[in-house]
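Tutorial, part two.
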Amino acid sequence: MALIKFFPSVRDSQDKSNEVSVQGYSENTLNPAMPETFTLIESLIDDLCDTFPGDYIHLGGDEVAPESWTKSPAIDELKLKHELDNGKDVASWFINKLSQRVEQNNKKTASWQEAEDGNHKDKKTEKLLFSWQNLESGYKLARDGFKVVLCPAEHIYFDMAQSKNYSDRGLNWAAIVEFEDTVDWQIIPEDEPELEANIEGIQGHLWSETILEDSDMEAMLCPRIIGLAEGAWSSAASKRNGSELSTLILYSFRDLFNHIGWSCYQSQNFDIMSDPLTNKEALVSE
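Running the prediction step on this input gives:
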C-alpha cells in the first residue's frame, strides 16, 4: 500500500475493484497490466539480486485479495492478450514474468504456493514453492513435480495459539498448535517416499501481529521451535515424537533457554521455567 501511495501509476486509475485484503487494507494490489509496475518492480529485483549473494530471490505472491483486478479495464485487455481467465491466472502470469527477470540476473525464484494456482500459456519458469495453506497442498505440489518447502500452518505456524484458553496469545484460523503438533506429522509420507525428491525442507513461521515485545516472541517460539528442529534435522528413523521431546524439554532444554535468557513461559502446555523436580506431578498432569 505504501508503494502504491508513492507510485500511483502502478494502479489502473479506472480500476473499480475496491479489493480488500484479508488484513483489512483496501486497494493495496499492484496492477500487472500497467507498464510502470514492471518498470518499478524489475528495477527492485535487479537491486535485490545485486545486493544478496544467495541463490534465491523470494517474490511473495500470497494472499492476493480475490476481488483484485475484477473491474480493471487494463486487466481485461491483458486477459484477452494472454488468454487468462481469472485473477489467479493473472497472478501466476505476473509472478512468472517477474521470475524471468530473476533468472536474467542468474538467480532462482522462490515464491508462495499461490504462484502456481493459476494457468497461463507462457513458458513457466522453475520456482521453489513455499506451501503454507495445509500439509496436503504441499504434498500435491510435490506430486505435480514442483520443488517445495513445507510450512503447513496447522503444524509450524508459531503465531497460532497453543491452547484454547481465552487468555493464550495467538491466532487460531489454521489450528491450535500445541507442542506435539510441531513434530508429530510426516514430512515425507510413508506411502509416497518418492516425494522426498521434491520436498526441499520445512520452515516454521512466527508472524508478528500479536507480538508486542521480545518476551512475547520467545514465549511463542519456545518450546515449539524444538519440534521444528527435530523434524528438520532428524531422519524418519531417529525422529522423536512429541511425548519424548516433552521430557527432554523439561530436563535438558530448560537449561539452554535459561542460559540464553529466553522468557519461555507457556501458560497452558509447559512452564519450562518451573523446576521439574518439585513440580513434576503438576507438569505431568498438565
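The radius of gyration is 22 Å. In part three we will examine how such features are distributed along the chain.
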